Amino acid sequence: EVQLQASGGGLVQAGGSLRLSCAASGFTFDDYAIGWFRQAPGKEREFVAAIGQSADSTYYAESVKGRFTISRDSAKNMLYLQMNSLKPEDTAVYYCAATKSTLATRHASWYEFWGQGTQVTVSS
Q1: How many C-beta atoms surround the C-beta of residue 102 within 10 A?
Q2: What is the pLDDT of residues 36-72, one digit of tens each?
Q3: Which helix (H) or strand (E) covers residue 82, if one does?
């Protein structure tokens, strides 16, 4: 059974940091590019960041570039999102997802597997 278990969300003040984790199982982790997406209340889901199979390929939304860092640990089948300088507009449910793509991609429709999400709330 494929599972993507996101964790690490919480409540933080603006300017603070959080580190999201995503534990993957049930598929060959190294064969998939992995991404983070988020959805705020009343808004559409949006791309945040993605990392390719080899971790050499990364892609960020302009809104998080320079503040967020995506990484993966193939030995542990884990994906991470380090979020610094958080802003209230970063408040959303964050989801990890996997796609059998070599390179990082922002296209949500390409992602086959999705996790259940973790809530991030940034107070002003």
Answers
A1: 13
A2: 999 999 999 999 999 999 888 999 999 999 999 999 9
A3: strand 78-83
